[in-house]
Amino acid sequence: xxxxxxxxxxxxxxxxxxxxxxxxxxxxxxxxxxxxxxxxxxxxxxxxxxxxxxxxxxxxxxxxxxxxxxxxxxxxxxxxxxxxxxxxxxxxxxxxxxxxxxxxxxxxxxxxxxxxxxxxxxxxxxxxxxxxxxxxxx
Amino acid sequence: xxxxxxxxxxxxxxxxxxxxxxxxxxxxxxxxxxxxxxxxxxxxxxxxxxxxxxxxxxxxxxxxxxxxxxxxxxxxxxxxxxxxxxxxxxxxxxxxxxxxxxxxxxxxxxxxxxxxxxxxxxxxxxxxxxxxxxxxxxxxxxxxxxxxxxxxxxxxxxxxxxxxxxxxxxxxxxxxxxxxxxxxxxxxxxxxxxxxxxxxxxxxxxxxxxxxxxxxxxxxxxxxxxxxxxxxxxxxxxxxxxxxx
Lengths: 138, 245
Description:
By secondary structure, chain A is an all-alpha fold. Chain A has 2 domains: about 1-30; about 30-135, no CATH class. Helices cover about 55% and strands about 0% of the residues of chain A. Chain A is built from 6 helices and no strands. The N and C termini of chain A lie far apart (about 70 Å). The model of chain A is unreliable at about 130-138 (pLDDT under 50). By secondary structure, chain B is of the alpha+beta class. Chain B folds into 2 domains: about 1-35; about 50-245, 2-Layer Sandwich (Alpha-Beta Plaits), CATH 3.30.70.20. In chain B, the strands form 4 sheets. A 3-stranded mixed sheet of chain B has the order 8-1-9, with helices on one face. Chain B has a two-stranded antiparallel ribbon with strand order 2-3. The interface of A and B includes residues 64, 72, 73 and 121 of A.
């Protein structure tokens, strides 16, 4: 009796170990996104808030800008881009459509989360020029 | 008198003249600063933006306004004029009885009673409070009813996937678009706006301004010299007025 109990314990330990190893392997398959550093020290809202609610902020701002001409910078997509999309040392900006899309702030996370966005089918995915980006505040 | 004396005299004189110029210009500047709305304020129907185009000043074969508009909004040649988007086009008309030829730029006329707004099934085609007629491309389904309804043939459909759009002018496949009266500039500069077409015009033929403000340059000129609405018989009351047609 005691022997069979020991056997079950051993089996369950082995199975548990296997499961853990499998989950480790699975998580090693997709590495967490490396989100590029933006300008400034703090985003327009707390980071946790932005992670969860950025789409809501953008949606509200979108309608206000489109229909009422409100162009405050707080939640504007253009300002997100001006701060978060930075040129590399060669002076080139990453593009969501290009081969270096994983270096683009939006795409780095969206491709990891498998959430397809079509913002950049129409909107510019990089600042207008280096000078325009410099003028932006965080 | 030595050179140094002359220089110090000149400096004093120029300094004085500069201060005088600043005093003369400053009241105007202050007035203009007041007229541009704060970025966070919604537009209102106290203003009605419009354009006055003097076709007499338009040069033969001149395409500067079209080029300026294309450059500002990132419109590029793709498959030729039959399908490419046109926000302004240069039109030449001949009076068959007198043989008088007129060149004029034709764009969205920003009608007060816009047919494109009436027919839009999704509400994407809309008129802002300040009279600018726009397409909300987030809700545009590309049905092109507005293109058929527009008596000025002012709207274009985007047939191709686009890249390299300008941040001030989001544009994309499957949506309809037209002249925005440089709304991004208007929201920033208000009454002091110079639209991209007016900026590019070397003949000084295009004037932007507030039709509701009797003190604006456009209203004063319309009062003094008059202006024509194209297809006035339709009763749409366009915000774009012409002279010399």
